[in-house]
Amino acid sequence: MNATPAVQAVLFDLDGTLADSAPDLVAALASLCVEIGHAEPDPVAVRRVVSAGGRAILRCGLPGIEEPQVEALLPRYLDLYAARGNASTRLYEGIDEVLRDLEGQGIAWGIVTNKVGWLAAPVVEKLGLTRRCGALVAGDTLARRKPDPDPVLHACALLEVDPARTLFVGDDLRDIEAGRAAGTRTIAAAWGYLNGGDPADWGADAIAATVAALPAVLRLD
Question: What are the b/e assignments for 72-94, b being 16+ CB within 10 Å?
Answer without folding.
Answer: ebbeebbebbeebebeebebbee
